[in-house]
Specification:
By secondary structure, this protein is mostly helical. 62% of the residues lie in helices and 0% in strands. It starts with a helix and ends in an 8-residue tail after the last helix.
């Protein structure tokens, strides 16, 4: 029987667009390793990310709304899955490499801090050299996972993870898909969560945006995804129409005014930032309290600030609160 991976790689050349990133044309991994006889390289990367500890921790990390009451608000994990779904839909329609887009999407936020962007702001202030979650995501998959071995992902997946933010410039169309899918996902699910939390009402969204994008989550997603597909079809780029770009800009301004700076949704973030700064300060002053795998990073020459940031950034919201309380609140003792 012919090697299954080779069969799948041949099929990519037959089925995918000339602009796709073919698995057998990957630039490879930082460390060479034997190929799988079943899975092409980007599928292996996707599987490695899904089985990582950092991926599992996303379920207990804030997306936008800090500690909301209710089970249906997005977490960093559900955001990641929604980005993945949107990216796969666009990649499939454009006959690009779905496995590559999915791997990038699943890994793009692995380095995010507890408490969402509030935690990121705090670490950026106190960590020498700053802190950016996209670079931290690359650090997670390249070094921190598997006790310092990393996941040894392909160059293309690493590039897509590093460049998923607006200012990034991914080297593959699949990476560019994820960069757009991230925005499509978070604008729409943040509206959905804000309405659920009674921060805004559906009728608060400007009428011109409702008329163009639609008046429901499903309609907006459908309009945005269709625009990307229609504008990018058979092109060596991933783009939106000028009208859609303006609509996204207007939607962003609406969200910042009514949601992202809303005191009801964001009023507690200063406490989260103070917690993260306090945790960073404690472990920087007491590095011997760091877990063994982080001690090894220090022994291997990594800077103290960066290793402490690694540890704090990897915490879930719940674990960060627990550690903060353990370090801040005296424990009772004695005999009744």
């Amino acid at each position: 029987m012919e090697n299954i991976r080779v069969m799948l790689e041949k099929r990519e050349h037959e089925m995918l667009s000339e602009y796709a990133t073919y698995s057998d044309c990957s630039k490879g991994r930082l460390r060479e390793e034997p190929e799988c006889d079943i899975r092409p390289v980007f599928q292996r990367d996707r599987d490695r990310i899904i089985h990582s500890k950092a991926f599992r921790r996303l379920k207990d990390k804030t997306q936008v709304f800090l500690t909301p009451n209710g089970d249906h608000y997005r977490t960093r994990l559900t955001h990641t899955l929604e980005v993945s779904q949107i990216a796969r839909s666009i990649a499939k329609a454009l006959r690009l490499n779905e496995d590559l887009s999915e791997a990038i999407a699943l890994g793009h936020d692995l380095g995010h801090t507890p408490f969402g962007h509030a935690g990121e702001r705090a670490l950026a202030r106190v960590c020498e050299g700053g802190f950016e979650h996209n670079e931290q995501s690359v650090r997670v998959v390249s070094l921190l996972e598997k006790d310092g071995e990393g996941l040894n992902l392909t160059v293309e997946v690493l590039d897509g993870i590093r460049n998923h933010q607006t200012e990034g410039n991914p080297c593959t169309l699949e990476g560019k898909i994820v960069r757009i899918a991230d925005k499509i996902a978070y604008y729409n699910h943040d509206i959905d969560d804000a309405i659920r939390g009674q921060i805004i009402r559906g009728e608060d969204i400007p009428k011109e945006l409702v008329c163009y994008l639609g008046n429901s989550l499903k309609a907006r997603l459908n309009t945005m995804v269709h625009d990307v597909v229609m504008q990018s079809y058979d092109k060596d780029d991933i783009i939106m129409s000028a009208k859609m770009q303006q609509a996204m800009k207007d939607l962003r301004e609406f969200m910042f005014t009514h949601v992202y700076t809303n005191p009801t949704a964001k009023g507690e973030e200063y406490k989260a930032e103070a917690m993260v700064e306090s945790l960073f300060a404690f472990y920087k002053e007491h590095p011997t309290q760091l877990p063994a795998e982080y001690q090894r990073l220090l022994q291997n020459g990594e800077s103290l600030d960066r290793v402490v940031a690694d540890y704090v950034a990897g915490m879930t919201d719940k674990f960060a609160v627990t550690r903060f309380m353990d370090l801040s609140i005296p424990k009772a003792w004695g005999v009744y």
